[in-house]
C-alpha cells in the first residue's frame, strides 16, 4: 500500500501547537462523579471481554449468551451462542417497559414547518407493518436489501424492518449516482430496493427514483422496488416490480412476531471507499455491533434517556447515521432529533433554531460543518437560546483546534465538554474519545481509547512509539463492533486490515502520542481522501476521469481545504487526438470532466480543481508521483525529485497551477 506523507504537513503545525496546547479538565462540580467513575478505565482494562459482556447484558437476549469471544485472528465472534433481535432491542422492549409514548424522533423536514413526531409506539407499529410487507414481498432472512432514501422516518423504519426479519440492509447514501448504486446492488446481489420519489435538499425537491430506475437497468435480478412518496414528484413506474409504500406497508398488519437471530447473524453491509476503485462492503453482525454502539452512545455522550434530546447531524447513508441516529440511540431508548436537510435550508440559523425549538442537549456533528458555521459568524448561534446543550461531539475527520475552540465557545458557551470521537465504518462504533466529565480534553485531540479498547501508535516496523512521537494507529485487541469481513472477499479483508502489521488492525490513519501520552489523529496515510468527512478513494475518481473519452491519464490527490478538510484536485492529460486549443475549450472540457465524476460517483466527488497538463510527473519506473502532485496542490516546496524521469514536468505543472489560481 502506498504510504503517503499526508500527515507530514499537519505534523509540523501540530508540534508547534502542542507547545501551547490548552487543556480542559472536567469542571470541579463533576469531580466527585468523575472520581466515582474514573475506575471505568481500570475495570475494563482488567478484563476487557468481561467488561464488554456486562455491556451486552444490558440488551434483551432471547437466548442469553454463555460464550463471550472466539478470537481466531483476524476473525472474531462475540456472544456467539446467544440469540437476539436488533429491532426488538431498539423498539419493542421500550414499549413493553411502558415507554410507548416517549418520543423516538422529533423529525424535522427541510421545508419550514414540515415536522413529524414519532413515539416508540408509533415506531413499533411502522416497523411491524414494514416487516410484514417485506415478508409478503418475498424477502426472507439472509436476503440483502438495498436502501436508497432521503432522511425521512421511513428510512429508519426500513432499516429496522430488515433487521427484524434478519435481512441485512445495505444503505446507499442518497447523494450517490445511479452507477454507484448499481455497483453496490450487484456486489451484494440485492433483489429488493427501498427508495422514495425524492427528498428535499438545499431548498428544493431532489429526485431519487429515477436514479434507481437507471441503476436497475444494470441489475436484472432486482425483482422488487418499494417506493415512499415524499415529494410528490412524477415517477416512472415498472408494473409488477414497483410498489408504493403507502399501498403495501400501510395496509399490512401492525403485529409482527419477531424471530431471534444468532448474535453473529449479518445485520448490515455498508460500502466504503478503499484504496482501489471498487468500494468494499463492510459487514457488521448483530450482537457485538449493537452492544458496541449502545455502550459507546450511553457512556461517551453521558446519555440520560429520560432527559436527553440527542441530535446526530449526519445522514443515515453513512455509518455515523447507522450507529448514532438509528441503532445506538434507539437501543438506549433515547429521544433524537432527525433533520432531513442541509444547514443552510431556511436560513443560516436553521440549526440553532432546531436546537432551541427541541431543547437539544447533545449535538454530534462533523468538523466540516463546524467550520462552515464558523465562517457564518458568531452572531447566529449567539442569537439563539442554546442553554439546553450539555455535551458536544465531533466525528469524521481531524478537528482543527480553531474549530474546536469556536465550537466550545460559541455553541457550548465554554460549559459543554467536547468529545472528539475517532472511528470508522469498519469499527462499527467509536473507539477513541474522551469521556465527558471524566477525561480531560485538548482542542484537536481524541485523547484515549474507549474503555475495553486497546489501541496504540506504532512505527513502520510495528513497534509502539514513545510519547511525543508519531506513527500509525493500530487496534491491538478485537472489539465487539468490529467488521466481520468484506462482503465476498475474505482475502481483501486480511490484506487490507491485518497484513501491514501482523496481529494488529491497521486503520489507515496516522496518529501521534503527545508528551502526556494522549492521542492525536492526523488523517489518512493511504490513497483515501476525506472530503467533508466523506471517504473517497483517489483511484475511484481517477477511474471516473479515465472513463471520459478525451482523457488519457489522470492523477488525483486530496489537497487541504479550509472548509472541507480536504478537496479533490485532479491532474489530467488528454489523448493525442483531442485538441484543447484555447481557454474556452479548456474551460469547457474541465467543466465536462467535473460533471463526469459527479455523474459516475456522486456530486460529493466532484473535483474542486482539474488541471489539464501535457504530462504527469513519473518515476523512472513509470509510477505517478502523487506525493509531488500533492505538494503542488498545496503550494509546498517540492520534496526530493531525483527519482523523477523528467523533473521539469512537475515545475511546469506547478506554474500552470499558480497561473490558474491567479486568474480566479
Ligand atoms: C477519519 C466515519 C480524525 C479517519 C465515522 C478514519 C477521523 C475515517 C475522526 C473513517 C476523528 C473519523 N479524528 N479523523 N475524530 N473520525 N476520522 O469510515 O481518517 O466514513 O479512518 O467513518 O475518517 O471514515 P468513515
What does this structure look like?
Strand 24 and strand 25 form a beta hairpin. The two termini are 36 Å apart. With 664 residues, the chain is an alpha/beta fold. The chain has a domain at 548-661: GMP Synthetase, Chain A, domain 3 (2-Layer Sandwich), CATH 3.30.300. The longest helix is centred in the C-terminal third of the chain and has 18 residues, at 583-600. Strands 12-11-8-6-7-14-15-23 form an 8-stranded mixed β-sheet, with helices on both faces. Strands 5-4-17-16-18-19-20 form a 7-stranded mixed β-sheet, sandwiched between helices. It has a 4-stranded antiparallel β-sheet with strand order 21-22-24-25. Helices cover 34% and strands 22% of the residues. The protein binds 5'-O-[(S)-ethoxy(hydroxy)phosphoryl]adenosine. 5'-O-[(S)-ethoxy(hydroxy)phosphoryl]adenosine (WTA) is lined by residues 272, 318-320, 395-398, 420-425, 446, 507-509, 521, 523-524, 530, 535.
What is the topological layout?
Elements (H helix, E strand, L loop, with lengths): L5 H13 L12 H7 L1 H8 L1 H9 L12 E4 L2 E4 L4 E2 L1 H14 L3 E6 L6 E5 H17 L8 E4 L4 H13 L3 E3 L6 H11 L3 E5 L1 E4 L2 E4 L1 H8 L7 E5 L13 E3 H4 L12 E2 L3 E7 L7 E6 L1 H14 L8 E4 L6 H13 L3 E5 L10 H9 L3 E4 L1 H9 L3 H4 L8 E5 L5 H11 L6 E4 L33 E4 L11 E6 L9 E2 L3 H9 L6 E9 L5 E6 L3 E4 L2 E4 H9 L4 E11 L3 E10 L8 H18 L8 E4 L13 H8 L13 H17 L1
Parallel strand pairs: 4-17, 6-7, 6-8, 7-14, 8-11, 11-12, 16-17, 16-18, 18-19, 19-20, 29-30
Antiparallel strand pairs: 1-2, 3-13, 4-5, 9-10, 14-15, 15-23, 21-22, 22-24, 24-25, 26-27, 28-29
